[in-house]
Design a protein that fits this description.
single chain; mainly alpha; two-stranded antiparallel sheet; 6 helices; 2% strand; disordered N terminus
Length: 180
């Protein structure tokens, strides 16, 4: 059995604000999807907005449950139990590579889904790109490299996370208003 990892959840004020922002912006994306569904020519965009809303909900849940911390603890216990903890670097590289492939594939899939409407989806897709960079920095920072780059007192990955959510939210509002 895996013990509860310490420090689970981002219980800071910023952590709670970002947690709420994930779900609020997911709702804005859902609103954009329902608005664009009424326009026959914009229906391809609906899938993009729904997919982004789903991604935001997953990231919001992870924000306070820290599922990646549980996964890391599970991997560590598995490596210790199987006797290859001393040689874990290969597993870490494979894990990061897998995360990178999934993140890049998701971004490419969203671009492909919105291909005919990239001009109006560009802000949201830039926001997704910012969140993708955030995820990659967090993934590589598990055990491999500590990327504690600070800008104005905030960690780079925190800035990318908030920027991504903000870009997506503003884009969803602008899109909804332009299609209505």
């Amino acid at each position: 059995m895996i013990a509860t990892p310490r420090g689970v959840g981002d219980l800071t004020i910023l952590g709670w604000v970002v947690f709420i922002a994930y779900f609020s912006v997911a709702a804005l994306c859902y609103r954009a999807a329902t608005v664009c569904w009424q326009d026959q020519e914009a229906r391809k965009s609906c899938r993009v907005w729904i997919a982004i809303a789903g991604i935001l909900v997953l990231l919001g849940v992870n924000k306070q449950l820290d599922l990646h911390v549980w996964l890391n603890a599970f991997g560590r216990k598995l490596a210790e139990a199987e006797g290859w903890y001393q040689n874990r670097e290969l597993a870490q590289v494979v894990f990061f590579g897998g995360v990178a492939v999934v993140v890049v594939a998701a971004c490419l899939l969203l671009i492909g889904l919105g291909w005919g409407d990239l001009r109006t989806l560009s802000g949201a897709l830039l926001g997704v790109g910012s969140l993708a960079a955030f995820l990659l920095i967090r993934a590589i920072s598990f055990d491999v490299i500590d990327l504690r780059t600070y800008i104005g007192g905030f960690k780079l990955h925190e800035i990318l996370e908030v920027l991504g959510i903000l870009l997506i939210g503003v884009s969803a509002v602008v899109y909804s208003r332009s299609v209505e």
